[in-house]
Specification:
8-stranded parallel sheet, about 375 residues, alpha/beta, 11 helices
C-alpha cells in the first residue's frame, strides 16, 4: 500500500516485506523491513509507499544513496537471464474463487515479531467481523519468520489452528539470498506441517511489486530475474504436495504492461489498486469506482484467460489528503460498500488492506478497519455490511 510524499517504498530482506525506499541496512546486508509488509501503486499514480507503520519504525537514509542503488542492482542479477525460454505453465489445481481475506505482515508497528498466537488472534478476529462472513484467508508477503534467516513464519501454524487459507508470498527483492531463504522456509513448512499446511494453500505469489519498484529506481527486480525466481520455485516444489499450486505475481497494472514473458510464466495475476493515491487523476471518493475498475479491467485484459486476484486495495480512515482523496471513516465505508461488496458479488478473490494497521501508536495514513488497541475489544471504524 502507499504512504506519504516521502515516497516510502517496498523492498525486502529474505525474511520480510516492506522497507523505506532508501533503507537502513540490517546486519545481514538486506534492508531493514517494517510492519505489515504492504505496498501498492495505483495505475498511473505518482506515489508509492509502504504500510504507515514503516513511517514510525524505519528511518529513511539520504535520498539517492549509493547503498540503495547498489542494492537495487544486486537484486536483479540479469546476466544470462534474457536467454530463459518461455515455459508453458502446467498446473493440476484449478484456481479457487470467492476467497475473502486480508493482508498480514510479519511484525508489529514497533517492529516486534508477530508470533503464532498473534497471527491466530488476528485470523480469528477476521472471521468474526460484524455484518460479514467468510473472511478466512490470509495473504502473506514472506515465508520467513521476522528476524530469522529462514525459519518458517509463525503464521503457518496459526493458520492451521484457525483453518485459515493461505495465499503464500515469497520475497525476491534485495539480493539472491532472499529467494533462497524463502524456498528453504517453504520446504521446512512442508516437512514440518505436511498436508495440514499444504491443504490450506490457495496460491503462491513469487514477489510483490518488484517490477514497479525496479521501474521507479527502487529496490525491485528485472522481469528476467523475476522469471528466474518463478522457475526456481517451480523446481523447488516439483514432486511435493504443492507441485500443482497456482503460482502468480503481484504488481501494479502499469508494471504488467509489456511484460508478456512474465505473464506467460504465471498462472494468475495479482492486482494492487489504490484510487486514494492516484492524485494525478480525479481521485475523490466519487471517482474511486472508476479509478479502481479502470486498472482492474486493464489488468484482466493483459491476463487474457488467466485469473486476476485483487491482492491489495482499501481506503484510509486517517491520513493526509492526496489530491481530491480524503481519508476518513465515511469514505472508507463508501469504498468498502462499492469496491469490496462488488468484488464479493462477482466472486473475485480478494485480500483487503487491511484488518488493523495501528497496533501500537497511530499509523499515517491508516488503512485499518480497526483502530489501535486490542482487536478482541474493538469495533470496526465503519460498517462492513454489503
Amino acid at each position: 500500500m502507499r504512504f506519504a510524499a516521502s515516497v516510502l517504498a517496498l523492498a525486502a530482506s529474505a525474511n520480510a516485506a516492506c522497507v523505506a525506499k532508501h533503507p537502513v541496512n540490517g546486519a545481514n546486508g538486506y534492508p531493514v523491513v517494517a510492519h505489515n509488509a504492504i505496498a501498492g501503486h495505483a495505475s498511473n499514480s505518482t506515489i508509492k509507499a509502504v504500510s504507515s507503520s514503516a513511517s514510525a519504525a524505519v528511518p529513511a537514509a539520504t535520498s539517492g544513496s549509493a547503498t540503495t542503488s547498489a542494492k537495487a542492482s544486486a537484486s536483479s542479477p540479469a546476466s544470462g537471464a534474457s536467454k530463459i525460454a518461455s515455459v508453458p505453465v502446467q498446473n493440476k489445481l484449478a484456481a479457487a474463487s470467492n476467497i475473502k481475506g486480508f493482508n498480514y505482515g510479519a511484525f508489529f508497528m514497533n517492529q516486534q515479531a508477530k508470533l503464532q498466537n498473534d497471527f491466530a488472534y488476528e485470523f480469528n478476529r477476521a472471521k468474526n467481523l460484524p455484518g460479514t462472513n467468510g473472511w478466512s484467508s490470509a495473504r502473506l508477503y514472506s515465508m520467513v519468520q521476522w528476524n530469522t534467516a529462514n525459519d518458517v513464519i509463525q503464521a503457518i501454524p496459526a493458520a492451521i489452528d484457525t483453518q485459515t487459507t493461505l495465499l503464500l508470498g515469497m520475497w525476491i527483492s534485495g539480493g539472491p539470498q532472499a529467494i533462497d531463504n524463502e524456498i528453504a522456509a517453504l520446504k521446512k513448512a512442508m516437512s514440518t506441517y505436511g498436508s495440514k499446511f499444504t491443504d490450506l494453500v490457495v496460491g503462491l505469489s513469487v514477489g510483490s511489486e518488484d517490477l514497479y519498484r525496479q521501474g521507479a529506481g527502487e529496490i525491485g527486480t528485472t522481469p528476467e530475474y523475476l522469471i528466474e525466481c518463478i522457475q526456481k520455485v517451480r523446481d523447488a516444489i516439483r514432486g511435493t504436495a504443492l507441485e500443482g499450486v497456482q503460482i502468480g505475481h503481484v504488481d501494479t497494472y502499469d508494471s504488467f504492461v509489456g511484460q508478456q514473458a512474465v505473464i506467460e510464466h504465471i498462472d494468475w495475476l495479482g492486482f494492487d489498486g489504490y484510487p486514494f493515491w492516484e492524485k494525478n487523476n480525479p481521485n475523490s471518493i466519487e471517482n474511486a469506482h472508476e479509478r479502481f475498475y479502470e486498472g482492474f479491467s486493464k489488468t484482466k485484459a493483459l491476463a487474457g484467460s488467466k485469473p486476476v486476484y485483487v491482492t491489495e486495495t482499501g481506503w484510509p480512515v486517517v491520513g493526509k489528503q492526496q489530491g481530491a482523496a480524503v481519508a476518513n471513516a465515511e469514505n472508507a465505508r463508501r469504498y468498502w460498500k462499492d469496491i469490496a461488496c462488488s468484488l464479493i458479488e462477482s466472486g473475485v478473490n480478494l485480500w483487503w488492506y487491511d484488518l488493523q494497521e495501528s497496533q501500537y501508536g497511530q499509523a499515517e495514513p491508516d488503512f485499518g478497519i480497526f483502530p489501535a488497541g486490542d482487536l478482541g475489544q474493538l469495533q470496526p471504524s465503519y460498517e462492513l455490511t454489503c
